[in-house]
Amino acid sequence: MAKFRQNHTKGDRGSAKGAGFFYGKLIMFTVVLVTLALGGAKMLSGLSLDDLASDGEGSTIVNNNERYYLPTSTTGNIAHHKYYSLSYNDRHEIPEWVAYELTAADLKVKNVKRHRRFNVDTAVKGKSASHGDYINSGYTRGHMAPAGDMAFNKEAMKETFFMSNMAPQSKEFNAGIWNKLEQQGRDWAYDNKRLFVVTGPVINDIKTWIGKNEVGVPKSFYKIYLDLEGSEQKGIAFLMPHADSKRSLKDFAVTIDEVEEVTGIDFFGELMEDDLENRIEATINLRDWDFN
């Protein structure tokens, strides 16, 4: 899949920085490749960055030679928190993707009290958008890694309130069809024990900005679920217009390849062998996923 390599400045929304092409050295706590031949994988939370060493774009090596993988970054602006990682687009002050692990074990833990304070994320280059950018804008702070997915302890919950994890969403969309998809994902994690989740806005068609930091308002959002735990390894993606909808979630289901085409991001290129990746990303079978 072809990938975008440009990082645009706010002062030049129509052209790329001439010197802004670079490869992101990705460091992450998330996905560990167990056996490429079998396509098996697992994520690991809470690694110290001292335990990791870069292995080039899209991957890192841990001291014991196990590998941890992330989607590719079109900006090279990667932030790593204990329970998720993200690639930040400082042109629009929103993430291009947020990646994390969603497990049945974490979802079975009693939920902690919801965190309320939004914080600037100093882990991203140039810092993130601020809470004030959204005030009186007509848009809510839409979590890409949902607080509901990270309610198993206070630290995980608090991390979802970094402004780097937010993108502007209308109240109707955030509380409606998008929330319905988030809840469906948690149901699937219960059923499948462990899912890899990548979610974010589609950035390349933004025409509206809010706040002092000029936060881009996406026209659409995506969410991807990958199940490598069972014998029937599978994936499903959703591409949703940024608008209220009463339609079925099934109407927004697409292949992972389709989201890669729209975003220019290679989500799982280093996680699976080519044959497995091609099969999972190019096909979709709604019968593999329980929408009840």
How would you portray this structure in words?
By secondary structure, the protein is an alpha+beta fold. 16% of the residues lie in helices and 26% in strands. The chain has 6 helices and 16 strands. The strands form 4 sheets. A 7-stranded antiparallel beta sheet has the order 6-7-8-11-14-15-16. The protein has a 5-stranded antiparallel beta sheet with strand order 2-1-5-4-3, with no helix packed on it. Strands 9-10 form a two-stranded antiparallel sheet. The radius of gyration is 18 Å and the shape is globular.
Give a short account of the largest sheet. Answer: 7 strands, antiparallel
Low-confidence stretches: 1-67
The helix content is 10-25%
Number of strands: 16
Strand numbers in spatial order across the main sheet: 6-7-8-11-14-15-16
Task: Assign the CATH superfamily of the domain at 91-288.
Answer: Extracellular Endonuclease, subunit A
The ordered string of helix (H) and strand (E) elements is EEEEEEEEHEHEHHEEEEEEHH
Shape category = globular
Terminal CA distance reads: 33 Å
Query: Which CATH top level class of the domain at 91-288 fits?
Result: Alpha Beta
Number of helical segments with 4 or more residues: 6
Q: Write down the CATH topology of the domain at 91-288.
A: Extracellular Endonuclease, Chain A
CATH architectural name of the domain at 91-288: 3-Layer(aba) Sandwich
Query: pLDDT average, as an integer?
Result: 80
Q: Helix and strand layout, with pairings?
A:
Blueprint: E1 31-35, E2 40-43, E3 52-54, E4 59-62, E5 67-69, E6 78-80, E7 85-89, E8 94-103, H1 104-107, E9 140-143, H2 154-159, E10 166-169, H3 171-175, H4 177-192, E11 194-201, E12 209-210, E13 215-216, E14 220-227, E15 234-241, E16 253-254, H5 256-263, H6 274-282
Antiparallel strand pairs: 1-2, 1-5, 3-4, 4-5, 6-7, 7-8, 8-11, 9-10, 11-14, 12-13, 14-15, 15-16
